[in-house]
Amino acid sequence: MMGVYAYIRVSTDSQETENQRYEVLKYANEKKLGNVEIVEETISGKKSWKKRQLGNLVDELQEGDILIITELSRLGRSMLEIMELLSILLRKGVELHVVKNRQILKDDLQSKVFAMAFSIAAEIERELISQRTREALQRRKAEGKPLGRPKGSYSSKLDKYREQIEELRAKGVSIASIAKILEVPYTTLYDYLRRRALSRKI
Prior knowledge:
The chain is of the alpha/beta class. The protein contains seven helices and five strands.
């Protein structure tokens, strides 16, 4: 029986996860693909796909399955990595659906040419963005302007729990216990308390 899967990846916690999920489900509904099993992770694309959840997903995919992604760059950051993955998927008989381009990639020449052209374009775009960023930083440095984030710009997913955290600390609950309650690593909570200048209260 055909399985329909989707892979969602973001580099950091952000609204983009929900955006990708929405686009995937909207696409699946339009194409009447049925239920979609979504695999999502927050991890840099610089990490090899084999060391990501994507690697496990690719291993499990079988002939006739469908894999949905919002765009090819979700698979990897380099042309070679994307082409390697595409080659494996097509050899296994898996259809790759790219939402952004409304493209369905199969084991045919047209799909391979499209994937190569797109991955090259995406890689060039990343290089241009990186180059512009470096140039902007060099210009700011030459002008004597401070680099990095402005002071106080730090944001955290724990901000929504701040009132609860302060209340628990006021009652004498340890950092380790609060971390377990919120299901976050101890170091994450400790760093949050320090950055929010709450460590003086603990």
